[in-house]
Structure formats: structure tokens, C-alpha cells
């Protein structure tokens, strides 16, 4: 080892789902939206002026912040934006979890939480989900340096209802509590209505799933202006201009076509519920996902084997080789056609039982 | 103060130069390129497909990494990319300066260095530039946790020649040394040729200045594959997808039009040298800048007053109210027309002396 390696921060990075470059693949592994953004986007792209690229973007991301604030009926001072919700969450961990007490998040949850905690040297504890993979609010009553959980949770897809969220918040007034709502638009209760009541509550959202804009990298957080100010201070201590011109220009227009948005949500939810019925017929066991993915296992076939067989057939789903969930597959809800192909494959695989 | 504020990381953020939204302003305050990117970019924008935005970008940013590696004759494993060189440098501070020994950078330099050090809790010392604002290599002989300096330095504009850079590197084999070459294309020696000799040397560049793409947010680092691997591990522990699709798509094509690039460089350098002559006639004192900005003071007029008078006339330059440099203005080299207007104003301001 070289001597200079002594000074290096060594980490175990998060592994994102594969982005196969091959054409013709059915991609159900990273929870992307099967439907493109509103057709209006083609015109927006045409209207972008390449000459403007010589100038720095607005460091305050004003156009995007204002559009998000307007959509949710908030003040711009209540909105923070970042390069996807991962950037927002990374900044939030760095800003709000600056304590020697452990932060709390579920043992089975978004697998980036422990990576950020390790990166920034934040101590943490992971209360175990109940056997049915639901969060027990009372596990979050103990003293801590902060709380973070996704709602619905990932990769389980299970949602907490508002009274349970509020129960957790009531027991956590002295630290920052983050509710990560990456998937909330697909049918769960939002904690957004609570940000006026809890000044320590940060609600995080993304354009990557329900808004069909994973390629643009836009995420945001909502909370009281003091939380947002602290978050912006850290952001401005890291990178003045995180949002590039295309993400500001396109992102600030992304919430305009509400009818199209609701229509794609409806289609995905319908396909999800149809797929649950079909998986049930094939003997799969799964959670009651309120997201755009399914979390399923089959009592007779190891998940890893199904995963590999699907991959051979150019159908990509996600498999996590981790305690408690290595029997499960996480399957993004694709278009009806993609899910037809998936179910056809699984019918064949399970011999039509 | 709320109790939850105890757990918050409190920082003094970097303040970026103003991005006035007003039209008709002469903007010489953030070292943007006065010339737009190659006319080819208009067609590239037209060719972007909005439907693709539903998919995550390639987390390895392969197309961009390959284009940069090809341009510089390197392996892709020697290149790291980020959201502007600020993102690259922030990640590099977090990765490489993980030591209890102080890192070293000049007292007068890019004012983000101490902000990153404070954010990440990195101890630092700032050897003073000599009276003429040049770096003394022997100040970097002492034991340290890392070394970072811009070449040319900012906001002084003064460049170190290759033997002096090598002198610093020779005395720093046991830590990572970063040479921040944001402005190198405007006429300084690059340390790039040394990355094969010094496996602890990281050279950082940006598309924001010479490449006319500040609005796209693309920066990069070059070094030996082990350095780049450590940097990517931290990046993948922070945000899997930092580079959005537009920055990958446009960025990977940004180095194709070499003739146009050389032509804009030539124009900026010519305008810079012309402006030096004109400033001299007006009694200004300035460094021999090798960048796309001038660093100048006038013995008879306080810099802050000139700054404010220029601002009144809608000519934005940069003023830093800091020790040793509060007598100076940093003036971006704009187009010949913009610099004509600046010089006309200053002629009038200094009564044509």
C-alpha cells in the first residue's frame, strides 16, 4: 500500500441497479416510469438555447424552487432542490445528523441510508421491521440523533398511514425526522400536511419515479424555512451550482401537465394491481405494495434463481442478497405489455401452476 | 433555539458571484466565457429525445468519461467526472484529506477550499503567498495531510511553471496533491504530463470556463486509476447518478470542435492582453494573469468604490472584502466589445489620466 493511502476515506459504496445499454431489454430493475414525460417536453427541449449554456445556472435554482412551491402551495423558503433525492438525502444526512447519538432507520429499507451514515461517520441503529415487514412506531420512541424512513418503505413497498407517521413524529421533537416519499404518488399518505405542525420534519420527494424524469436528476425537500436554510447553507458549502441549466429549465416545467401525470399514475396503479392478481395465481407471496414496484417471493423457487432466469430472458429485475430479503425479488411495475411478458415468463417458469 | 438545532452542522457557506437576471448587463463577475459553445450544440440539443428522460443516466457516465480520456490520451480508469469542478473538488476533499494533519493551500486562493475543509472537519494551514502574490514552493515542504492549489491561482491569475509544480510534488509523496487547473487552457503549464510519474497527483479541470459550458456543470479529475477508484467509491457513496442525461449527452460531445475551441481561446487571450495595455494607461496595477480574468487595483481609487460605480453602470465585476486582496478587483475577460465598454467607463472614471 502506498503511504498516501493512509489518508484516504475508504467506504463500501451503494450499488445502483444495472443500466443495460443493450436494446430490447425489459427493464424492471430501477423503478423507472415506463411512460415518457409529457409530450410537451419535446417542445421544451427544442426551445432550449445552446448559447445560454456559457452562463452559470441560477445558484438558487429559483425557477425550479418556485414551480415546486407553487404546485404544493408552499413558500419558496420551504423548498430545497438537489440532483435527485439521493443528493437531497445526502445533504440532509450531512446537515441534520451531526450528533453523537445514533440515528434510527429500519433494518430493511433503502440501502443508501447506512452508506451515507458510514460516509459521514454518523452512528446508527436499525430497529427491525415486524415479521410482516411493517414499521413499528414504538421502535422510534427511544432517544436518538435523528430519524429517517421511506414511506412507502423500500424495497418492501409497504406504506405507513398518517396516524402512525404522526405517532413517530410526536415522539421525536428534539431531532430532525425525515420522511422519504420517493414513491408516495403511487398511493400512500403523505406527511406533507404535517410540516406546519412539526418544524423538525423534512419531507423528501423526487421527479425520478412518478414524474418520469429519472434522467434529469431532480429531487426536493420540503420543511419549515429554518430547516431549509440550514440545508442550503450546507449545499452552498459543497457546490454552489448543483442544478444545471437543463434540469432547471425542464424541471421547472415538469409539474404543468397534471392530467398526463394523473393518467400515467392511474395506468401504473392498475397494472400493479393486475400483476398482483397474476402473481397470486402463480403461487407468489408478496406485500401490499403502494409503490411502482412489487416485492415478491415464491415458496418453491429461490429468488436468485428466478432473477437469473429472468436475466437470461432479457428481463431485468432487482435482487438483494441481504438478510431477511434474499428470498424476494423487487420488480418494477412496467407498462402493461412489459408486465404481460413478465407474467408469461413466470407462468412458464413455474410450469403453469 | 429549538432543541433539534443542537444536532445541526452549522457552516459559513461560499458565496458565488451574482447571476443577475436583468438583461443588458455586462457580466464580468463569474469568469464565464463570453463566447457560446460551438454552433454544433444547437443541433445536439435538437437531437435529444425527451422520452429517454424517463430512464436513469449511466451511473458510470461512460460516454463522458471516454470522451475526456480520448481527448487527453488517457485510459477511462484515469478519469473522474462531477457536477462542475466544485463537485469534483468537494468529493476529492472528502476522499483524500481524511487525516488529522493539516492540509496546505495558499492564504490567497480559491475561496471554496477553506469552506470544504470546514464542512468536512479537515484541519488546514494557509502558507502566505509572497508579496508579489506568487506561491513559494518551499512553503509546501512541511509535513501535511494533503496539498491543493490552483494553477493558475485564483483570484490572482498568476501561474506556476512546471518545475515549481514538480518541486512541490517531489516534496509531497506521502499525501494526495491536487492541482486545480480550472483556468489552465488560457495559457499556463499543465501538471497533466506528471500523473504517470506521481501516483498521488490529481489534476482537476472544468468545462465551465474555456469550454463555454458553465450552465452544463461538468468538471473532471485525472490521476492514476487507484486515485480515481477511491474517488468513485466516495461518489457512489454519495449519489449514484450525479451527471444527468443532458450533461452526459452534451458533455461527451463538447471536445469535438477543436478549431472553434482554439479560436475562442485565442480571442480571449488577445482581449486579455489588450485590456492589460489599456489598464496600464489608466494607472492600474495588476498581476500577469494567465487566466480569463484580470486582477487589478488602482492606487488612487478604492476597489470597492470602483466596483460599486461599475455596478451602477450595469457592469458586474467581482470584489472580495478579504485580507490582502480588498484593494483589488477581479474582472472577467469578456468579449472585445464588453471590454471596450469597461475601459471606456474606467477612462471616464479615472478622468482620462
Q: Can you walk through the features of this model?
A:
Two copies of one chain form a homodimer. With 353 residues, chain A is an alpha/beta fold. Chain A has two domains: 16-37 and 258-349, Aspartate Aminotransferase, domain 1, CATH 3.90.1150; 40-251, 3-Layer(aba) Sandwich (Aspartate Aminotransferase, domain 2), CATH 3.40.640. In chain A, 33% of the residues lie in helices and 12% in strands. Chain A is built from ten helices and 13 strands. In chain A, the strands form four sheets. A five-stranded mixed β-sheet of chain A has the order 2-8-7-6-5, sandwiched between helices. A four-stranded antiparallel β-sheet of chain A has the order 9-10-13-12. A two-stranded parallel ribbon of chain A has the order 1-11. In chain A, helix 2 (62-72) runs parallel beside helix 7 (245-251), helix 3 packs across helix 6 and helix 8 runs parallel beside helix 10 (336-349). The first copy, chain A, is globular. The mean pLDDT of chain A is 96. Chains A and B meet through helix 1, helix 3, helix 4, helix 6 and helix 7 of A and helix 1, helix 3, helix 4, helix 6 and helix 7 of B.
Look at the structure and give the CATH class of the largest domain in chain A. Alpha Beta
Largest sheet: spatial strand order of chain A: 2-8-7-6-5
Major sheet description of chain A: 5 strands, mixed
The coarse silhouette of chain A is: globular
Number of helices of chain A: 10
Oligomeric organization of the protein chains: homodimer
